[in-house]
Amino acid sequence: MTGVMETPAPALPEWFTELFAHRRWVRRATPFPHVYVRDVFVEEFYQRLSAEYQRVRRDRGDEFHVVNELYSADAISLTKLRNGPLALFGSREWHDLIAGVMGVAGTGDIEGAVHHHPPDSPRGWPHSDLAPAWFAGDPPVAGETRLPDGEVDIQTGERESGVAARELVRGVAIMFYLANDPAWAAGDGGETALFAHVNGRHDPEPDLLVPPLNNSMVMFECTPRSWHTFAGHNVADRNCLVMWLHRPRSEAVRRWGENHIVTW
Prior knowledge:
By secondary structure, the protein is of the alpha+beta class. The chain is built from four helices and 13 strands. The radius of gyration is 18 Å and the shape is globular.
């Protein structure tokens, strides 16, 4: 089951809306609710995003870090990309657009990075992303966002004495594909796998594969059912901006219970 919606309707500034190709954004119900978009941005702006990522990869390669010892990607955080075209993804305009489309009242706190998988990377493990995240200081006010700044460990909340922090939970996951081989075809791997059920299995068959097509995007609310992973076995480099919006932990507990929030 699918539904179609026009590109974003919240009251957003003209400079921001002019960046979009204004194609239809497709809301899908299976294997769990998610939104899929082709040609997210106008071609000129997409090319700027791609070129900027390629420049960062070339000139700042030493700033990329291993995401997880069990995950084959390295990444550079949005916190380090506050200047240039990629800074758009840390903006309040982008936050409010995604929050509005997904129907989640985000807190203004953003976590994310551009992930790079080398060719023939192994498949990841299915996970829901319904996980805690810690941010320093007071909640952002209207028009502002907050990205992790190193004062607080985003996964554990560890910090020096006297540093205030808030415990949140991931509310929306977004994956935007860029700077990949434009000749990608079915069988080339590197998709995002979505699952209807996992049932304790480590390697279930995906119910849907989202291809890493340039200037496309998939996003979904983080819930106990939002099972997904990197499908692996890519024939070429695979690049994807991965980011999350957040909600108060109390709201996630009220909706799904403490036991569904996955600790690190």
